[in-house]
Amino acid sequence: MDIGDHALETTRGLLDRSATVRHGYLDVLGESTASPAPTLAQRAMNSAFVATVYERLWRPVAFYVASGVTTGAEQRRAADALRLRGAARLLDVACGPGNFTGKLAQRLPDGGLAIGFDISEPMLTRAVLDNSGPRTCYVRGDARELPFGDETFDAVCCFGALYLMPEPFQVAHEMVRVLRPGGRVAILTSYAGQAAPARQALTGAARLIGLRMFDRHAFVDLFTSSGLVDVEQQTQRTLQFVTAAKPG
């Protein structure tokens, strides 16, 4: 068994349901289940073209404009916030083409495993091609019902996707559920904290393409009410970065 097969089989053992191997990733949904893509933004995330250009062009430019933070700085901030040097298992929800999964996997200790999770087949196919390694595995599924048992992961993250999802708070609750005591969670999502005229224009434009803008309290309150501690929030332009820990 090579190192790629080892990561895949380890991940298969963590799943709470059967999965098939497709294009190098594990699929718990099956070929007959199409990715839901009712909005313009969701259709883009299920496009093979967008999957190809996302990591190198789309995301670096769009997120720098939205926050003033480079992708490299984002990845370093994420690794620090999640305390990956002491984490054995990481779950990257809505991982897209694995641009964070692969980089964060490199921060894990020897024997660590980073699982990238997404519903988009084109994104996961690109992730396997571009961001695979001895500590990575990718899984296709629905984040509203993560196919893992309670308290499975030392670190759970979701960067730049919750505002695309039809039930983002359900996804966030699932992220908390699979986080082990002592583990840490981090999200990067939209932020509507601007002055009224700018906020209204931004929210209206986002709604047209299927994006949701979250206020300052949405995820801070969710994590707090879920029993998490050390909740911290950073806001930059139109994005917010929120971290928290599950009591040990």
TrEMBL record:
Keywords: Methyltransferase, Transferase. InterPro entries: Methyltransf_11, SAM-dependent_MTases_sf. It holds the Pfam family Methyltransf_11. Residues 91-187 form the Methyltransferase type domain. GO terms for molecular function: S-adenosylmethionine-dependent methyltransferase activity. PANTHER family: 2-METHOXY-6-POLYPRENYL-1,4-BENZOQUINOL METHYLASE, MITOCHONDRIAL, METHYLTRANSFERASE. The keyword Cytoplasm does not apply. This is SAM-dependent methyltransferase. It comes from Mycobacterium fragae. GO terms for biological process: methylation. SUPFAM superfamilies: S-adenosyl-L-methionine-dependent methyltransferases.
